[in-house]
Amino acid sequence: MALGLIFLFSLCFTLCFAGNVSYDSRSLIINGERKLLISAAIHYPRSVPAMWPELVKTAKEGGVDVIETYVFWNVHQPTSPSEYHFDGRFDLVKFINIVQEAGMYLILRIGPFVAAEWNFGGIPVWLHYVNGTVFRTDNYNFKYYMEEFTTYIVKLMKKEKLFASQGGPIILSQVENEYGYYEGAYGEGGKRYAAWAAQMAVSQNTGVPWIMCQQFDAPPSVINTCNSFYCDQFKPIFPDKPKIWTENWPGWFQTFGAPNPHRPAEDVAFSVARFFQKGGSVQNYYMYHGGTNFGRTAGGPFITTSYDYEAPIDEYGLPRLPKWGHLKELHKAIKLCEHVLLNSKPVNLSLGPSQEADVYADASGGCVAFLANIDDKNDKTVDFQNVSFKLPAWSVSILPDCKNVVYNTAKVTSQTALVEMVPDNLQQKDGSKALKWEVFVEKAGIWGEPDFMKNGFVDHINTTKDTTDYLWYTTSIVVGENEEFLKEGRHPVLLIESMGHALHAFVNQELQGSASGNGSHSPFKFKNPISLKAGNNEIALLSMTVGLPNAGSFYEWVGAGLTSVRIEGFNNGTVDLSHFNWIYKIGLQGEKLGIYKPEGVNSVSWVATSEPPKKQPLTWYKVVLDPPAGNEPVGLDMLHMGKGLAWLNGEEIGRYWPRKSSVHEKCVTECDYRGKFMPDKCFTGCGQPTQRWYHVPRSWFKPSGNLLVIFEEKGGDPEKITFSRRKMSSICALIAEDYPSADRKSLQEAGSKNSNSKASVHLGCPQNAVISAVKFASFGTPTGKCGSYSEGECHDPNSISVVEKACLNKTECTIELTEENFNKGLCPDFTRRLAVEAVCS
Ligand SMILES: *[C@@H]1O[C@H](CO)[C@@H](O)[C@H](O)[C@H]1NC(C)=O
Ligand SMILES: *[C@@H]1O[C@H](CO)[C@@H](O)[C@H](O)[C@H]1NC(C)=O
Ligand SMILES: *[C@@H]1O[C@H](CO)[C@@H](O)[C@H](O)[C@H]1NC(C)=O
Ligand SMILES: *[C@@H]1O[C@H](CO)[C@@H](O)[C@H](O)[C@H]1NC(C)=O
Ligand SMILES: *[C@@H]1O[C@H](CO)[C@@H](O)[C@H](O)[C@H]1NC(C)=O
Ligand SMILES: *[C@@H]1O[C@H](CO)[C@@H](O)[C@H](O)[C@H]1NC(C)=O
Ligand SMILES: *[C@@H]1O[C@H](CO)[C@@H](O)[C@H](O)[C@H]1NC(C)=O
Ligand SMILES: *[C@@H]1O[C@H](CO)[C@@H](O)[C@H](O)[C@H]1NC(C)=O
């Protein structure tokens, strides 16, 4: 009874309100207690409110204590400094309340500059056009609006009582972001700005500490923190500060036209274990759920609409296996060590040329050891306290009692899964099977009144101010009847140079070709033969941005759009059109009229068609349909489309562009987790579209009558569009007898018996599904991967029945690799394994 009360009280004390947050050189101190914290970045505008509770819950189940988010200034003040928006997916307070209700803490990275592969780094475009403004330096306007926004957010948080000092979940706030990389480019103004930002933040009196990440001259009033793939060697500038890792990148972002990067779970776990081994106390995954850059929020240029990031929770909200599970086991193992780690001084021992132990022993007899093998090729057997331990290459073993290994970063014991996008044809109930497509075709060039004319070119971004991706540059050229190419059937060649980001060229309303830059380089050249006729020819060039720059010194001054247009092949040589009279039109007619929204859809005359036109540029398609069956998350398959924008019921799905990466990139079939990770280490999908599926949140669908609108720029086949459902078709595990487990009930007990581990396979189905079939089970020496396991030389024929008995019709099950379950006499000279593949339904 008394114990129960104390337990309830302390639970409430830590979870119901955080209270006083301070720190010392070891860790944050919350209500007088040192804390070792696992944090997970989930950005509220990159999912929808209907997903937030489940995302937060999945993070908590994954062993996460803290949710971390940026505040995205340009979604809260999109058009002017006098208006604030916090509706829908921009409802910051609602998001934080959900985190608090889950009993978790929150780190609020106010920025307001965020980078984050987010449009314009999170700063509203209007601020660039306030005369005399220079971003992120000692500039009056920038500091004025930055302070105003920061103060507004802090006041909002205070009003809602969200800071820990008020009983809320916010334990830390961040000002600026990774400024240290760029400060030098701003000279003395940069230094003054960084110091001002820290002082401005601290003077907000939030009652919780402020952090600055990658800020190499941060003042002592804030905590400077680390962002990298590895932060074990990081040291805060001041010795009284704890070691905090604000961005551990468990994957990487994607770029239209590039292959997809992968970071193996073993390496992520290695980096985290090394950080805690070396005295770290707060570690944040950036991202834990990456989500989606809906609409035109992706930064750039060329960042994909998906911001999956190969994070522990995938874009669609499903745990990514085995990464999510492997890190969950890691968090469990680290938490077993928390008290001793935080309350003792480490001693490090060399165990070999690239092997080392850090041992933490406290006064009450507690002992924790981390044994690391940082050799990136060779496994190694080491002696530690007179016991020998086998350490796989590039791994850390965690011993919460200095005796038993409960976790090794290279041994993945958690289940894995096969995830598929199962296509579901677009459909509509009401009897008629055929969908009723309707189309509206934009004119190539000027629609309505021209916006303005000019001899020569204007900058694209200065002109659109990012109200749209699109800017038409049009002119005309008169071709004499005596041009040789007309007689010879030759084609003159159109040569264009652009600062970016992409372009479609039309002559006399016909698409002649397209060009675009790429992730490393947005300026590009266009060179294509074109068809010209005698007499007047209209040249209409559709210039496009694909996300504004989001980082770099003076990034707001980087331009886009045409810089040179020439046509070669005339009798008199090459004609330079650059100084011609150009007529400009900002945006598309359909955008202007809002025809993608239910309230604007009838403002043009759509043409009904039984067969929607294929390969037709500048076409708006609309169709009314039912939601896909089931309740799995949904992705719109745009493999057979060209490039454009998509909406459902007026909600912005975003830019689509199934742009393929080069087949000549270096892709891998297996990723070796050993050795330092870099984003180009383990690419997949060479020669494939970078992004084929586009997340459409379930909550955007109505039971029927859903309006899907697509704007296709260059031509595609809309009849091949499908909604695909994201399904875990199989769950799998492959565990060896010698795999450790952080689930041991009592370490001492296990230690005293012998070191025979009770390795076990744990399987669980997502979303309350049950295991309906066991497709494969083999105890012995099975090989292969999830979806393609095969029996080895050694196989216990009872394997299937043992697994079926334990798992069929259950949401989750555990099978221990014990004598009772399996024939342990089998091939005693091998380390035996159990492989299982099961189906959930
Ligand atoms: C918060 O904790 C710090 C360090 O433990 C202590 O110095 C300070 O007085 C506390 N503040 C409040 C308001 O309790
Ligand atoms: C900003 O400067 C431009 C010219 O540099 C001028 O045309 C414009 O009126 C100015 N705007 C404001 C608000 O001062
Ligand atoms: C080991 O500990 C010593 C003494 O605290 C320290 O100087 C040294 O940097 C540590 N070595 C490593 C690799 O952490
Ligand atoms: C290891 O063995 C040596 C010699 O047998 C002994 O002196 C020492 O105390 C042992 N160390 C531990 C940690 O058991
Ligand atoms: C060259 O030929 C083009 C196309 O016939 C014509 O428009 C242009 O005026 C000519 N330029 C000169 C310098 O004659
Ligand atoms: C990106 O574009 C630049 C300039 O056009 C080119 O030099 C570079 O090779 C391209 N890179 C890739 C990966 O396509
Ligand atoms: C955009 O316009 C500003 C003036 O408002 C000018 O200083 C800047 O150079 C222009 N940018 C480009 C890329 O032309
Ligand atoms: C599983 O459930 C199905 C249908 O409810 C039933 O027919 C079957 O006997 C069950 N199997 C086991 C092993 O419980």
Automatic annotation (TrEMBL):
SUPFAM superfamilies: (Trans)glycosidases, Galactose-binding domain-like
One Pfam family in the UniProt entry: BetaGal_gal-bd
Coiled-coil positions: none
Annotated GO MF terms: beta-galactosidase activity; carbohydrate binding
Catalyzed reactions per annotation: Hydrolysis of terminal non-reducing beta-D-galactose residues in beta-D-galactosides
EC nos: 3.2.1.23
Top-level enzyme category: hydrolase
SUEL-type lectin domain location: 755-841
Record keywords, A-Z: Apoplast, Glycoprotein, Glycosidase, Hydrolase, Secreted, Signal
Leader sequence segment: 1-18
Highest taxon above the source species: Eukaryota
GO terms under biological process: galactose catabolic process; plant-type cell wall modification
Subcellular location: Secreted, Extracellular space, Apoplast
Coarse class of the protein's main subcellular location: secreted
Gene Ontology CC terms, in alphabetical order: apoplast; plant-type cell wall; vacuole
Record-stated family: Belongs to the glycosyl hydrolase 35 family.
Record-given protein name: Beta-galactosidase
Gene source species: Populus trichocarpa (Western balsam poplar)
